[in-house]
Give the backbone structure.
Amino acid sequence: MLEKVNRRYFLRSAGVAAATGAFIMGCTLDDHNLPGEVVDLGTGDIGILNYAYALEQLEAAFYTQVMMSPYAGMTDEEKTILTDIMYHEIVHRQFFKAALGAAAIKGLTPNFDGIDFNSRASVLGAAKLFEDTGVQAYNGAGNLIENVNYLLIAGKIVSVEARHAAAIRDLLNPNSADFSGDDVVDPMTGFDKAVKPGVILPAVQPFVKNTISGSGLPQ
């Protein structure tokens, strides 16, 4: 079992230093869809990249809100971990925006009305949902990507998302085996779940005010 101090700082190894945080926070989505507007992700690799971009937008917006209004009693350890995760998600979001260029969907409008940002249980419960969903989404979309370079990047990002998921689970249930619980990792194969876009998109739709259409993606 890792020592507490190591758990506290392990996310730093992903290479997002605090010194770049102010710059990253300035990277905003200039063009947003209106609430209720249908957002079509597209088809092929562009559709898959927009799919990942949409999920990263949601996660980046969530963690930004968390750190703008920390929940009551947030410890220094929790603040360190959640801040690092926020930076990672913003970097992921900006990567997909740059990679897609003119083909990128507009900025989504999050709907976090069901999350009590002053409640540790509510925030970490939502974080667990987002991170577990993100890992399953990347795993489920990997075999749909044709460009090997995009596949390589997706593989790198999903490994970071899995670290996030494990960190959040450890905050919720310290020093347990929940970081790789049977609900996310098949105990017989040792593989994480892989879920297709047709299942993921309806699951995240309640957290977005726009209507996300993945009709052009394999379901």
Summary: The helical segments are 4-9, 21-25, 44-68, 76-100, 120-141, 148-172, 197-204. Strands lie at 38-40, 211-213. The first strand starts at residue 38 and ends at 40. Residues 1-28 have pLDDT under 50 and may be disordered.
